[in-house]
Amino acid sequence: MQEGGGGGVARINFYQASCHQPSRTRQPLTTGDDNNPKLNPPRDDWCYGGSWIEDGPESVSITVSNVKILQWALKQLAHRLTTSGQLPPIEFQIQIQKCSDDLGAFASKLTKFEALETDSRARKLWKRLKAALGDKDLERMTETVGAYSSSLNLYMTALSGPNTQHVESLRTDLARADVQRQQQLSSISTSLDHASATNESMRSRLDQGLAQSEANQQETNNKLSLVWDAIQSLAARTELSATLKPLGARPIEEETPGSSSLPYASPTTYSQTMLPLERQIPAIMLQNEKILDCINRLCCMVNQCEDTSNEETVDSVIEDLQTIIRAVTSQSKNRVSVKELRRVSGLLDSAQTLSINGQAQRSPWPNQVARHEQRLETYEIGNVTLKVHTKRRYLQHHPADGGLIPKRQRSDIGYTTSRLTFLPKVRDGMMFSAIIKQQTSPMGFFSPIPFFQANHIRPRDSLVFQLVEEGRLPELITLLREGKA
């Protein structure tokens, strides 16, 4: 009974010792990293209440798991310290080394209890090993592991605090830098837009300035061209006036129309028209230059040629005169003047007899002027004045024996004379005269061969004029015989 009772008391005492322990809820160890499943494996709450034999294997398993988790945390901490190059204080190094040694001892001691199963045989074995291990030892191991875990967690928190603050500071600086970057990008974009608009405005202004400059340049070139043409014209006229000096030539006999006492004779009619030209127009200036060249050639040819000329000279003189007449016709606005000029041009084309510095032909018949008409047109061509003097005379024919022709058989002889006189305005310039004559025969038709005569007119102060004015006829006859007048 006593043994049985003693045994029963012992069992009761053990049961009471096992069941009257303060009930506590134990959580798994944490190392500050709640998201790591290795450091925080899910565990169910367990209680020391009840049978120690039944709950012992689970307590050992939890303690072994906590020891392994803490060992893994120590390895990670050592690796991070080695990688970062930051060594902890000496006291903490000693504590870490002691924690590592204790965890190694706990692990070697608990490993053999971790493999026990919770069957009846395991319970019996657990009872036998209970004396060697004891619940106080297991609780001390658990408290030691918890203390080490708290110390490591505190150190890691203290260690990661500056890094966290540094990272937060870096993040704040990066956010501030990003804001500044966005502001700078916005400012740069605005500046680029403004610069683009400014460039477009400057390009537009440059294009306008270039167009205006080209227009001004073109206008300047046109003005320079006009000035150059004027200079060339002035040079040509200066050269012409310096080259064409008065040479010995025969003056033209002015034909004074006779007076008629016939009752049907008409009075002399006279008209004069001045037609100035616009020298500023380039086309007219070029045309005037061409006319001056023609006059220059005509004057030189008349000065150098004798009374008889070859066919080439005749063609050249007629061509130059036609050029002058066409130019004057194109510039004339008077219909009557244009008609007279065209008549002169037609007579000039049909003329086949040319006399240069020769004697004027006389009418072989003694006639009386029955009617006389004349017309004078004056044109300004550059530095030369052109006078076109057209005369028409109708003569009453008389037989050679002095008798009178019956009225029904009488016919008048008509003369048409067109004189082109070129008078230069420059001093010592040459005067040139071209006369074209055509007459109608007594039978009433026109002669098919008009007479053309070209003469060089001496100025008033020439020797011929002086001899005539002074009445020195023998000397004048001598000049005429020598061909100098």
UniProtKB/TrEMBL annotation:
Biased composition (Polar residues): 19-38, 185-201
Ranges for region Disordered: 19-41, 185-217
Highest taxon of source: Eukaryota
Name the UniProt record assigns to this protein: Fungal N-terminal domain-containing protein
